[in-house]
Each structure stands twice: as C-alpha cells, then as structure tokens.
Amino acid sequence: MNLSRLIGVLSCVIAGFPLLCGAFDPLTTTVVVGISATLGRTIYNYFLESCDPKWINLNTTGLAHDLETRLFGQHIASHLILRAVSGFMNNKNPKKPLVLSLHGWTGTGKNFVSELIAENIYREGMDSSFVHVFTSELHFPHASQIDTYKTQLQQWIRGNVSNCAQSLFIFDEMDKMHPGLIDSIKPYLDYYDKLDGVSYGKAIFIFLSNAGGEAIIQTALEFWNAGRKREEIQLKDLENSLSLSVFNNKNSGFWHTNLIDKHLVDFFVPFLPLEFSHVVQCAMAGMSARGLQPDLEVAKQVAGELVYFPKYERIYSSKGCKTIDSKLDYYT
C-alpha cells in the first residue's frame, strides 16, 4: 500500500470526513478505518481513565513513604495499613474483598489515610471514577427510608464493581449510620467466587468511624499512667476490645452487624489520640503544603491553642489535627 495514500485516508477518517475517503479504493479505506478505530481506542484509553494497570496500580514505595512522613503518631495504623493493602494488591486471586475498619477520635487521620490509599493505587487519586465515598448523613439521612437505601446501596456497589473489579468504597461516619443498613452489602464482602456473575474479590471497602475511640483512649491512658511509651502499644492490646465496643455500640452502624459477627472485617485499625508533639508536626506539614517555610515557633503556637484532655494532665488533643488548617489561615 502506498504510504501517502495510507496517510491520506487515515487523515480523512480521523478528521471525521468518512465520505471523502470514498475517493480512495475500498481496500485502502477498510484497512485505514480499522487502524483509526484501534488508534481511537488507544487515544481514548490514554487520556480517559480506564480500569487497567495504567490507571490502577499500587505504588507500594509511595504509600510507605506517605504513611511514614505524612501521618503522625499512628505507628499501629501505618504498619497495618501498609501490610494489608500491599498484601491484598499483590494477591492475583484474592478470595474476598479487603475490608478495613478504621476507628479513633476525630482528627486522628482516618480520612487522611483513606486518601493516601486512593492516591497510591489510582492515578487519579480521590478524583478517580473508581473511588466511591458514602457519607451517612448525606447519602442515608432518614431512618424511615432504610429499605430504599439498602436496595440503592446494593445496586451502586454491584454496578460499580461490574464496571471495574478494582473499585474502592469508602464509608464515612459509620458511627452515624442506621443500624442494619450496612448488613445489606454482607454478601459482597463474603467468600464468594461470584454473585450473579460478578466477582467482588478485588474490591476494597474502608469504613471510618469514631466508634471505639473511647476504648482506644482508655488503653492509651493506661500506658501513659504506667509510664510506658505510646509506641509500646500493639494491635493485640486494642483489637479485641475495639471490635467488641463497636459491635455493642447501639449508636454505631456496626451494632450487632453480621460483618463483625461473621468475621468479614479483615482488620480493625486503631488510631491513637494525638499528643502536642503530633499536632506540631501537623502544623509544620500544613505550612509545607502551602509552599511556606515551616516555622516551629508558629507551629507550637497553633498547637498550643487547641483543647487537650484529660482536664489536668492535658495529654491528648480533643480534635486531633482537625482544625489546624483553619488556624494556619490566621497565622500565615
């Protein structure tokens, strides 16, 4: 085939003038239309997000670095998240979805960790069309409509996993979710090869909740009162009491849920309350994120304005690092 003729037909097809291509012989036109269709798919997949390794691929090194340098005071969560996510993503044939339940006081980093996971798996991060966030008060506000919510939730998950097996679902404010609602997705988290032709084994589910925070704080205080370092706290010191407190909390979306009863939650991840030094680190990181030179004195001043508890010891920030960003607006 003459190269100039090939280029000519290819140009007219891509330009959107297929009738003009009739000036060329049928064989040439057929070949070029096929080439342009293939080229079109390639361009489409290059510029528009698709469910393939070019767009979805765990950056283990990046996740490890982010957890080490951007998450403060959470040695248990950092270690557990890295091993759980990397182990799951490296498994070519997981038997069930990865289910993580993140618990702790407000402002300790639960939402932030979810974002780090998304950023290091999906090229588009939290903006990926395969990352789905549900907030209890926004998506499931009325207890009277719980049956409707159950149906919708099942449809949303089934549809999105059908579209991309490696979908990520984040459920925020689980402590505000209506009890019983989350049980509607139990089949999708269980050990099934396929359900109605759909496999859910490569999906990730992350639940975020303040429930269980009191049990975590109590354990942290016990270590502090005993003169032990917080870094000595291990998962085994928290996991059992955490799962029990969440399961028996009537104000939690996990109250008597089958997800816990049937051991479908792979890891209960505790987030420890943050101390003054951790809040200072948050403030320093916040300044860096704004392109400013971190100022330790300013960071200490910002951290010093927060409320700490217990009342007299003033060990832990009552809001973690939650209000640091807004306070930096004033100081910077």
Taking pLDDT < 50 over at least 5 consecutive residues as the criterion, the unreliable ranges are: none
* Continuous helix count: 14
> Which class best fits the helix and strand makeup?
alpha/beta
Q: Biggest sheet: strands side by side, in what order?
A: 2-3-4-1-5
Sheet having the most strands: 5 strands, parallel
Give the overall shape: globular
* Number of E-type strands: 7
Helix content: 40-55%
Describe the protein:
The strands form two sheets. This protein has a five-stranded parallel beta sheet, sandwiched between helices. It has a two-stranded antiparallel ribbon with strand order 6-7. With 332 residues, the chain is α/β, with parallel strands linked by helices. It starts with a helix and ends with a helix. It has helices spanning 3-14, 26-47, 60-69, 75-89, 110-121, 136-139, 146-163, 186-189, 213-225, 239-247, 258-261, 276-289, 296-304, 324-331, and strands at 98-104, 131-135, 168-172, 204-209, 267-271, 308-309, 316-317. 35% of the residues are buried. The model has no long low-confidence stretch (mean pLDDT 88). It is globular and about 60 Å long. It is built from 14 helices and seven strands.
